Amino acid sequence: MLQRVDYKLEFERKRNIKLITPCCGKLNKDGKFVNFKGFPEAFGYCHSCGVSTVPPSLYKDDEGNEYIWNETTNNFEKHVTQLSYDSVTQSSNTLIQSCVTSEEFPSKNIKYIDYDVVRLFVENPKENNLLFYLRNTYPEDLVNSVKEMYHIGTGKDGGVVFWLINIEGNVQKAKVVYYGKDGKRTNYFKVPYKNENGYYSCLFGEHLLAFDNHKPIVLVESEKTAIVCAMELPNYRWLAYGGINGLTDTKLKPLIGEKVVIVPDMSEKAVAIMQKKLHDLKQLGIDAEIWDMTQGMSDEQLKEQGWYNCDLEDVFRGYKGLN
Question: Which class would CATH give 115-319?
């Protein structure tokens, strides 16, 4: 009987600036595309377009032989190169393409995760490092509240499970991220439910749109920022779009007819991307405005002041003297 092999994705420290990125098809001269350690260069995360090209799932039988699923033949094939995936990338481009499929997906292919699975991770008595940090920084009742509000889970290996639950209450996907006890993110993360298997992203916190309609909506980039801001400024509904280019058309659909404030991270590019999106948002019937925390400063000026690529959570952290 085949069982799926779980593996952690860790970023390489050194970035290949001569690489042509598999997602954007551009030279990686600015180092925005970072590879996963131990995998071919086709697999990694692009900080420019927000797309992850993740390796195909690996399966193992009782004798230790490894297999991958071939999308072309619809069969398991024996995998010889032991987690290198070299033969995979050389033999079939379709596997790479499945990693970068558009967020626009046919509704008949969407699968949902059973809510009982979510509760198993939320109720794990051994909490993750992010919750440890939050409990040492904020009052217990506030942390308990946001833990339930966002269904923050803890994996067996201590990873933070961010569940992506849509406005109808269906669980679409999960992202597992690893933090130190100082509340800062490490280079590890996992994507246990993949697009090619029918699990697609939505806004983190999208389920909150069904409640508290009197509260204004604010969009930030990261899940952690949304959680912290929900404690700092609870009179708003805080959602996260998951990366500099994570605000896709599909994620925007539940916001049609709403008024929203978007708070990009502090960089010229992050702000420019959102400014370009304003026209599209208005065309969709979304009344959006941007809170530009850079206040017109260049990246160099932000670096000099220590704010480059920081977000609203970093601002609150700075006020508390935790940086």
Answer: alpha beta
